[in-house]
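Fig. S4 source data, part A: sequence.
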Amino acid sequence: MKYVIVLGLAASIAVSGEAFAVCDAATQLDLSIDNILVDKTVCAEKANGDQWQEYHEPGGDLIDYKKGPNDPVDPTTSVGTWRLSNRAGGICYSYGGGNFNYCYSVHDIGNGNYEFCNNNGLDVTAKLVPGNGGCGFN
């Protein structure tokens, strides 16, 4: 019986250790120096399966790739703006003429994967691709 309790405790510590690593300050980027998002498309996904692909133009425009620039139904279009925030590792997005605003800290979790974290914790996981070529999902 004690063996089962010890195994259960060890498993819960391992799981809580993984949860602690999400949005960890040690993985947070300093975007004011790295500026890794300029001229990149963020291939984003939420835990609920929502996906989107937004290109970060050097001037601050945010372009939703959608189904590509030549698609007659759902073409690439500007959807808002992006800017680095005043806090280290921070980025803010503005949509709908400024009616919808979101700010994140960005964390490099390795293998080309990033976490975008807000005040509630992990909100979006993402990969970055160069240019405005889309991510392969529509």
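Fig. S4 source data, part B ends here. The radius of gyration is 18 Å.
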